[in-house]
Amino acid sequence: MRNVITYSAKNLQSQNSFNVSTMKAAMNPNKALWEKGDFTRIAQGMRESGEALVQTLGITKGLKVLDLGCGDGTTALPAAKLGADVLGVDIAGNLVDAGKKRAKEHGLANCRFQEGDATNLQGLADHSFDLVLSVFGAMFAPKPFDVAREMVRVTRPGGRIVMGNWIPNDPTLVAQILRISSAYTPPPPEGFISPMTWGVESHVVERFAAAGVSSDKISLARDTFTFNYPSPPAALLGEFRKYYGPTMNAFEAAEKSGRATDLQNELELLFIRQNQSTRKEATCIPATFLRVTVMH
Ligand SMILES: C[S@@+](CC[C@H](N)C(=O)[O-])C[C@H]1O[C@@H](n2cnc3c(N)ncnc32)[C@H](O)[C@@H]1O
């Protein structure tokens, strides 16, 4: 029953398409996973929700913002457009380059990007940011307790941390992609902690508590991110299959076991069912996430 996943860290290990084929790579497997694809292809359909989320953050001119696991700047660029002084940090070199290019194209000198690992933000001073933002970013780093500690360390007293995390077992798109994919991939190595555990409220509270933040400083809410794409759902799935590291890994494993067509069919059905676009040639899929706000 590998598809039956409860809210425990142990069982969440079965959502393993994040790491399996890349664990063998000599380099950091977490970095290899995200450099393997091209997340820009997926992020293009996430820009509107990224902007909408940033609009709710009360960003003012000169606010020092760290966007952790920033990708190519879906939230970093809108924050900079509102006048914040933004540093985007990401483990994937290709996405850091893409972010720099996009910031330049938008004329945003106040939006910088650099490579870095959310588990160890060496080089970033204690208490140096007013807002640490991480939308579906830091959740993908291993060692979640280190990640929480680092986010708290670089946030100034009186500052905020805002995370967006996908929720395990949620019926909407991303959780379901990962649930389906897990049935086609081998079990993860011993000790692997699923990124999806960041979508479980008790784990979030526990991790920030270990970093010295009491639970009354943490608020948790469900929110929605919408994937918009100018072609039908099967074409959007095609983008995930070709460019989204976790889905690429699932298809690689499924091809080895001769089950790639089954995986394709299962995912295609999911994308079609979740599509809410009223236009035949377009895709619009809302997905639920856990919004975490920590007052430091
Ligand atoms: C799903 S993408 C989201 C990107 C971006 N926040 C967005 O909303 O478009 C996950 C991002 O987290 C980054 N990431 C994964 N592990 C990381 C780590 N240990 N440190 C920093 N970034 C990491 C990946 O490279 C990738 O850009």
Question: What this model shows, in words?
Answer:
The chain is built from 12 helices and 7 strands. It is an alpha/beta fold and 296 residues long. A 7-stranded mixed sheet has the order 3-2-1-4-5-7-6, with helices on both faces. Residues 1-16 and 19-25 have low confidence and may be disordered. The structure holds S-adenosylmethionine. S-adenosylmethionine (SAM) binds next to helix 2. S-adenosylmethionine binds next to helix 2.
Can you tag this structure with a few keywords?
296 residues, alpha/beta, seven-stranded mixed beta sheet, 12 helices, 7 strands, disordered N terminus, binds S-adenosylmethionine
Sum this structure up briefly.
This protein has 296 residues and is of the alpha/beta class. Helix content is 38%, strand content 20%.
Question: What is this structure's SSE topology?
Answer:
Blueprint: H1 9-12, H2 29-36, H3 40-43, H4 47-55, E1 64-68, H5 76-81, E2 85-90, H6 93-105, E3 111-115, E4 129-135, H7 144-154, E5 155-166, H8 173-182, H9 201-210, E6 218-229, H10 233-243, H11 245-256, H12 260-274, E7 283-295
Parallel strand pairs: 1-2, 1-4, 2-3, 4-5
Antiparallel strand pairs: 5-7, 6-7
The structure holds S-adenosylmethionine (SAM).
What are the segments in which pLDDT stays under 50 over at least 5 consecutive residues?
1-16, 19-25
Number of strands: 7
Distance between the termini: 41 Å
Bound small molecules, deduplicated: S-adenosylmethionine
Estimate the strand proportion: 15-25%
Count, helices: 12
